[in-house]
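Late entry, evening session. Most of the bench is empty. Finally got around to the prediction I had been postponing all week. Sequence below, unchanged from the version circulated by S.P.
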Amino acid sequence: MSKHICIRCGQCCIGVGRTFWKVGDFKNYPELETLATLTESVDGGLPCQMLQMKDGVASCKIQTDYGWKAKPEVCRTFPDDECHHDKGTFKNKRICLLEAG
């Protein structure tokens, strides 16, 4: 069995669109639910609005402010759920490392 290790490059969040984060279920996070309804729904481009880069290291503003469980499910399960390595997404971009295990 192999395991995918995130190297926090941010590539997974760069190609999804600015409003991708709104796919989350924020019923337990009223501040995020309000922000999602107040934020313009038109996807003005890339990357996701919640992507933060500092010194070449990516992080998610939702996770930073509210914790990992607050992130949309698709973000929490990436890359293990339908990993981009298996699908060939972002080929040769070093999104994450594949580790035998």
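Two things to note before I forget:
The chain has one domain: 2-100.
The beta strands are 2-6, 51-54, 57-60, 96-100.
Will write this up properly tomorrow.
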